[in-house]
UniProtKB/TrEMBL annotation:
Region of interest called Disordered, as start-end residue ranges on this chain: 1-34
Cellular component annotations (GO), alphabetically ordered: mitochondrion; nucleus
Family per record: Belongs to the Nth/MutY family.
Protein name listed in UniProt: Endonuclease III homolog
UniProt lineage: Eukaryota, Metazoa, Ecdysozoa, Arthropoda, Hexapoda
HAMAP family: Endonuclease_III_Nth (MF_03183)
EC number: 3.2.2.-, 4.2.99.18
Domain HhH-GPD: 173-323
InterPro entries found in the cross-reference section: DNA_glycosylase (IPR011257), Endonuclease-III-like_CS2 (IPR004036), Endonuclease3_FeS-loop_motif (IPR003651), HhH-GPD_domain (IPR003265), HhH_base_excis_C (IPR023170), HhH_motif (IPR000445), NTH1 (IPR030841)
Localization annotation: Nucleus; Mitochondrion
Gene transcribed to yield this protein: NTH1
Length: 356
């Protein structure tokens, strides 16, 4: 009995010692758990490490009270790993998303930049100074176009539709003809009776005599007669009110149509580009590259010149070409643009000289 008691005591003592040790080990385990790196949720829930649990489960149930079983831990560990992976994925997604947002922002900036570049329009260097100088040189308004231009050839006392017909006729006569000649011919026609009905009644030869010395008078008389018939039959003895319809009349081109819309209807539809405007635009560099025809020049000018200058620029440049920037022997020596004009700076080398 004593032995049993001793053995029991020893056993009890050993058990107590084991418990103490286990408790000690449990504390050790808990302490060691603080130093082992585990998935954060496992550490938070159990405050133990897997290696500690393996040792503890063999010796003490008291520690088991506070520790989960291996399968439970393993499954939690797996869940933790999944969470970690999931967390990483979320972080990666988040990073990816941020990267995408950043790249989208960058792309957007690039697109905006590209669109801004595309919107940038060509315009000539120094064009405002050039325009200002021409205005100053044309201040006196004493060029032939100022007093005898096509818009000065109408009978101010006539009916509006008769005035519009006269505006159209003066433009048809002005082609390849000086303003002074056109103006005199229109004066004679007005005295004769410049209405659609009267012109249609007049013999071709008489009309040729009336408009002489206008250039290409035979052809122009034919065009005037055919146009007058169309106006009488299709437009109620008035002129059409669009560029397209005006261009459909015999002998009427885009330059005449745009100018006729201005002088006949008071509507600015485009720049009237004659030989003066064409030549000067090339000399002063108002076209991005040399142009060969007035129509090409008109399109190039309309690409950059502000619309509110379209009406002014025809008269301004025609008079400037009649007085200073003449076709042959331009007066560059006295021109205010000589320091900024490409033609004046390089009169022999300028490619624009070839387009005159
Ligand atoms: S400098 Fe000569 S070419 Fe140039 S605008 Fe004046 S006149 Fe014309």
């Amino acid at each position: 009995m004593r032995g049993r008691r001793a053995a029991g005591a020893a056993s009890a003592s050993a058990s107590v010692a084991d418990q103490d040790q286990n408790k000690h080990e449990g504390r050790t385990t808990r302490r060691s758990a603080k130093t082992v790196v585990l998935p954060c949720d496992v550490k938070a829930e159990n405050n133990v490490s897997v290696s500690s649990v393996k040792e503890d489960t063999a010796v003490s149930s008291s520690v088991e009270d506070v520790k989960p079983s291996l399968p439970s831990l393993a499954s939690r560990f797996k869940r933790a790993e999944k969470k970690k992976i999931s967390h990483r994925s979320q972080e990666e997604c988040s990073v990816d998303a941020k990267t995408n947002v950043k790249s989208q922002k960058r792309n957007k900036i690039v697109i905006e930049y590209e669109s801004a570049v595309k919107k940038e329009k060509w315009e000539p260097e120094n064009w405002i100074d050039t325009l200002h100088n021409i205005r100053e040189m044309r201040k006196s308004r004493d060029a032939p176009v100022d007093t005898m231009g096509c818009d000065k050839c109408m009978d101010d006392d006539a009916e509006p539709q008769v005035m519009r017909y006269q505006a159209l006729l003066s433009l048809m006569l002005s082609s390849q003809t000086k303003d002074v000649v056109t103006h005199a011919a229109m004066e004679r026609l007005r005295k004769h009776g410049c209405t659609i009905e009267n012109i249609l009644k007049t013999d071709d030869q008489i009309l040729e005599d009336l408009i002489h010395p206008v250039g290409f008078k035979k052809t122009k008389v034919k065009y005037i007669k055919r146009t007058s018939e169309i106006l009488r039959d299709q437009y109620n003895s008035d002129i059409p009110d669009t560029v397209e319809k005006l261009c459909g009349l015999p002998g009427v081109g885009p330059k005449m149509a745009h100018l006729c819309m201005q002088s006949g209807w008071g509507i600015v539809t485009g720049i009237g580009v004659d030989t003066h405007v064409h030549r000067i635009s090339n000399r002063i560099g108002w076209v991005p590259r040399p142009t060969k025809t007035p129509e090409e020049t008109r399109k190039a000018l309309e690409d950059w010149l502000p619309t509110d200058l379209w009406q002014e620029v025809n008269h301004l440049l025609v008079g400037f070409g009649q007085q200073i920037c003449r076709p042959v022997g331009p007066h560059c020596g006295t021109c205010s643009n000589s320091k900024i004009c490409p033609y004046a700076k390089s009169p022999t080398k300028s490619p624009r000289k070839g387009s005159m």
